Here is the input.
Amino acid sequence: MSDLDELYQEIILEHAKEPSNYGALDPFSGQADGFNPLCGDKVSVTVRLSEDGEKVEAVMFEGKGCAISQASASVLTEAVEGRTKEEVLALFEQFHGIVKGEIPAEELDQLDQLSAFAGLTKYPTRVKCATLAWHALKKAIG
Ligand code: ZN
Here is the structure.
């Protein structure tokens, strides 16, 4: 059970149970869907950009699927709010690094809730669950 405990850390379970920013923005500047056929996870992401189109003012998501996919979407909406598009893409790169186990432990501490997904390195098939919402967001702000 210890591996599972590590995988479904408290942060992940909490976000899956009570996701932040759940719903759809109206009006929105961009929208994209994500589907992970391996697990059956679905997300729909809506994003509102600043007038100059450079900054993410708000993100909301709707979806269903495993705890990891939904928790990741929830954490994402909190992590990217108020950031520039460039910063969001850099954060996505970092998140990729986290789920693949490429970020050293001391750096994980600074990544706040995103670091909860570091436990996924033992479950490579779940990486798609964790990155689903990020891919959708990337499309939505593209
Ligand atoms: Zn999944």
The chain has six helices and three strands. The radius of gyration is 14 Å. The mean pLDDT is 91.
